[in-house]
Amino acid sequence: SLTPTGDLVAAARNAGEGVGAFNVITIEHAEGVVAGAESAGAPAILQISQNAVRYRQNRVEPLAAACALIAEAAAVPIALHLDHVDDLDLLHRAADAGFGSVMFDASHLDYADNLAATRSAATWAHDNGLWIEAELGEVGGKDGVHSPTARTDPDEAVAYVSGTGVDALAVAVGSSHAMTAKSASLDIELVGRLRAAVPVPLVLHGSSGVLEDDLRRAVAAGLTKINVGTQLNVAFTGAVRRELADHARTDPRKYLRPARDAVAETVADVLSIISGRRAP
Ligand code: G3H
Ligand code: ZN
């Protein structure tokens, strides 16, 4: 069923587990994520990024509506999150489009400008019933340039959270966006210091590139919302490529079905790693 993001994140944090947040580009992604969550017996977050909205011809509503209906029918709790928004017009469409939460991304700005922009986004979000995440210490890779060296300073993080009023904080602890192979290791010691200092749940971006053991240890050390995008697309596109290499296909269902199944399998794997649950 469709569940507020804040509820899923709070429950995971209290249990010392991670909750997976998975990027959706097509309806098959959303169906695959929910199927994977159901087979793992774990909740999950469907997230649509501003970049995905651009791909969807700048219309967020059709894909968001499909995700909400897929979530409603799910056997496990599923939340709907708008990811990496810096366009205020898009932000202001989030509540009506059915999202329970947004990530406002001003991480490319310097500290003072990030704080000011995020504080006003957070005020708007709370006035409109939305849970809001923001980022401090830019996680690289959004522009194709990997910078796993960025780090969030715990003292600055504490001041940022109290100055902005955000409900969750995305931190830079060694990951980088859009990595197609698992080779990033995380600064687990820093995760522990951030968890001890920061009063709100912590979010990991660029989780696709993180080594499995590091992901497990980082969740145990205090990361809660675990964002996975690229890993789903590696699985999705790999399945399409195999299907088309082996067969002369015309009907998209013939190659999108294995793609959706590959997404489901990947999601179940990730959820078993971060929630400590074992898929049946
Ligand atoms: O916000 C989305 C995530 O940070 C996804 O990152 O595509 O590198 O897994 P990823
Ligand atoms: Zn991200």
TrEMBL record:
Signal peptide: none annotated. SUPFAM superfamilies: Aldolase. Pfam families: F_bP_aldolase (PF01116). It comes from the Bacteria. Its cofactor is Zn(2+). This is Class II fructose-bisphosphate aldolase family protein.
